[in-house]
């Protein structure tokens, strides 16, 4: 266990230094979208290292919005700086599937569990409550566009769960699976062993959802693992 923790710490440090992986890298685009949306209620799913949380909290503070952040196990304690900014926020340490149906939201930033079932469920909950919601999704691009990632495979219904493993990573240059190397979770997450096919990946979930909701529009930016926008 000590060796695994050490390896994961190395992985986190390497990723932070060498790999653009955070939704926060889209902050300039977020600002423009937020100004256009003029939300009263902002919901972020997946705070992780709190990069985008800081930006959303600052916007909420300036504009008098309510910010709700949902993450069952954040990597950084966002509550410390959120408390300094404003009391108009909530931090829910729970899976999105357990709380989204109860949340008010004009705009949602989704960067949680990157798999078909979770993203489909999140979108269904959001648009059942607010058909006019704006949704921004991370990881609509390679490698999670057509391949599921599971932080908690035991929470995925069996009919949506693909054969998966914690022991493989993805070579981001070739897309091939590598044993304990490449873009690897070091025990933090599992990945589907096959790429593509039905009910597999974030983008597949978005496309299937949009197909049955012709009133919605979808645009994407194919950079930094992909940013998708639904309006």
Short description:
The chain is α/β, with parallel strands linked by helices and 231 residues long. The protein is built from seven helices and twelve strands.
Could you explain how this protein is built, in words?
- The protein is an alpha/beta fold.
- It is built from seven helices and twelve strands.
- The strands form three sheets. Strands 3-2-1-4-5-12-11 form a seven-stranded mixed beta sheet, with helices on both faces. It has a three-stranded antiparallel beta sheet with strand order 6-10-7, with no helix packed on it.
- Strand 8 and strand 9 form a beta hairpin.
- Helix 3 runs parallel beside helix 4 and helix 6 runs parallel beside helix 7.
- 35% of the residues are buried.
Annotate the secondary structure layout.
Blueprint: H1 2-18, H2 27-37, E1 41-45, H3 51-63, E2 66-70, H4 78-85, E3 89-92, H5 96-99, E4 107-110, H6 116-129, E5 134-138, E6 149-150, E7 164-165, E8 168-170, E9 177-179, E10 190-192, H7 202-211, E11 218-221, E12 227-230
Parallel strand pairs: 1-2, 1-4, 2-3, 4-5
Antiparallel strand pairs: 5-12, 6-10, 7-10, 8-9, 11-12
Helix pairs in contact: 3-4, 6-7
